[in-house]
Amino acid sequence: MADKQVNKKARKRKDAKDNEPQEKDEATKEEYTIAKWMRKNIPIKKTKFLNHTVEYFTANKAIDKLMDSPWTQPKKGSEEALFTTRESVVHVLDNMLRHKFFHRARKIAVAESELKSKKKKDKEPKEDTNEGKEKETPAASEKDTDKSKKEETATAAESSQAEGDKADTKVEDKRKKKQESEKKRRKIRLDMHLEQRIVDASDAYVWIYEPTPYYNYIFGFLVVVAVIAVCLFPLWPSTVRQGVYYLSLVAAGFLVFILALTVIRMIVFGVVWGLTFGKHHFWLLPNLTEDVGFTASFWPLYKYEYKPGESSIKESEEDNSNEVSKGNSSKGDTTSQQTTTPATAPDHSETESEGSQPSQTGKDFEMVEKEEIEQ
């Protein structure tokens, strides 16, 4: 019986201890003021942390700034200052870390191979979208090649003069590359650190605390005032109530006008598309239903596109191929005529070259074919 009574008393003591109110370890007002000061004065960097952009700071820089803060001087009522040594700053920051103002993170350097792979992935969809634009007809491609050949011959003379300048520019380019390489810093990303404590080093600490800006309080106050004013609508003056009534009618009419425009533009597009068997696409106010600004949704006024069918595309390709074949045959005839011309030049060639005028490009040279040079 005595043992049972002892056990009952022990249980009652345990229950009394469990029912006692536990003191919550909450952040103090001073810690909030220090956090606000740190957010304003300590330099912050941005990077990726678990696929989210976060802001972080380094511990040694934060301690350096806090050693020059107002808390290094004693207050009027206290004898000692809050921050006297770097260890005291570390102690306060450690308490703030426990109160979840920020947390410690581990720096991981991003390899160049990962950056290159990301760039390639970003370029691939762009190349896919530009495939249709890069398709050209054979006739246009040959014209472009002829133009490129002419440009190459014109730039050949200029390149000979620019070789001397290239030697000087190479030295400057090397210097610029060195400076750029020095400026480039290795990109890093962050990951959670297992040891959550403050270390006076270049470790990263990610901000969790975000102070509420002052304009949020202003907007909240205005919302409360607007709600109270709407509730007091029956007490408004008659002229003000009548003005609000007319404004509501204007807003309703504008919405009806927008809905009517969307229906009309769909009807016009359907009629044009049906009469032309899908070849002509005509849109009134094409940006009306797009995710753009208010003024941009009403501009341009219309958009017209012609989309021929597959049969017409094939016919155009066949016509282009026929033109190319004709052009090649004519080129073959001209080359055969050039080969039949006599190789010997007249005696007046020297006098003609001396009396020849400088070219329009500003360089004293002549366009000569390869066959004449070989002869």
UniProtKB/TrEMBL annotation:
The chain crosses the membrane at residues 214-237, 243-275. GO terms for cellular component: endoplasmic reticulum membrane. It holds the Pfam family Sec62. Keywords: Endoplasmic reticulum, Membrane, Protein transport, Translocation, Transmembrane, Transmembrane helix, Transport. Its main location: endoplasmic reticulum. Coiled coil: none annotated. GO terms for biological process: post-translational protein targeting to membrane, translocation. It comes from the Eukaryota. The keyword Ribosomal protein does not apply. Residues 333-346 have a biased composition (Low complexity). It is found in: Endoplasmic reticulum membrane. Residues 1-29, 113-184, 312-375 are annotated as: Disordered. Residues 15-29, 122-153, 163-184, 363-375 have a biased composition (Basic and acidic residues). Residues 322-332 have a biased composition (Polar residues). InterPro entries: Sec62. It is a multi-pass membrane protein. Belongs to the SEC62 family. This is Translocation protein SEC62. The lineage of its organism: Eukaryota, Metazoa, Ecdysozoa, Arthropoda, Hexapoda.
